[in-house]
Amino acid sequence: VGGRVDFQEAISWFIGVFDGSSSSSSAAGGVSLAEVYELWVRVRGRVIAPALQVAVWACMVMSVMLVVEALYNCVVSLGVKAVGWRPEWRFKWEPLAGDDEEKGGAHYPMVLVQIPMYNELEVYKLSIGAACELQWPKDRIIVQVLDDSTDPFIKNLVELECESWAVKGLNIKYATRSSRKGFKAGALKKGMECDYAKQCEYVAIFDADFQPEPDFLLRTVPFFVHNPEVALVQARWSFEFCSE
After folding, report:
1. Which CATH superfamily hosts domain 111-226?
2. What does pTM read for this prediction?
3. Segment 155-166, tens digit of pLDDT
């Protein structure tokens, strides 16, 4: 076992394996370049080529799967548009009954609106303003701004914006943390650990560049209230291009 393996013996052994012989004795006169090349050709043809062929077939199968999935999604999307399908056809939806939302009402569930931010200088005012203008009883909504900004100037601006809305009577919380572990997802998770967050029945999440319509909660929360099996509502969103 501890003997030294000679290069010629190794080549001869590999050639014997591919020839069907178990002999490991070296050929007289040494190993020529032709024999080394012959061994490479055999390894390439019997080991490397089949492995590559299997990989190519696997890639082809996955490509076909992607094409089929894309075609299926296109057909479903076109069908939905053609028949005018709406979520209300499958899930019960009714407006929340009771007093006007401006007057407040305990029948409205508590909603936490989370906005994770990271140096969002261009859009922080728009997103915070849109969240604070959501049509919902002011005593039944909490806007939580989770600021992971590393720029002190931007962080100060975001905090001042939150304070300006708080002065107007909005229940808005400005939260920071010492590390950016998990990035924005980590910030959202950290925000859920706050005591006031645990009092909320539903959570609405908007990225820093999103501007929800004022009636967003009035249109989405009823799906949760009237359909206990529903755990997530994802709304349609679109791009808006503004020019100055």
Report:
1. Spore Coat Polysaccharide Biosynthesis Protein SpsA; Chain A (3.90.550.10)
2. 0.68
3. 999 999 999 999
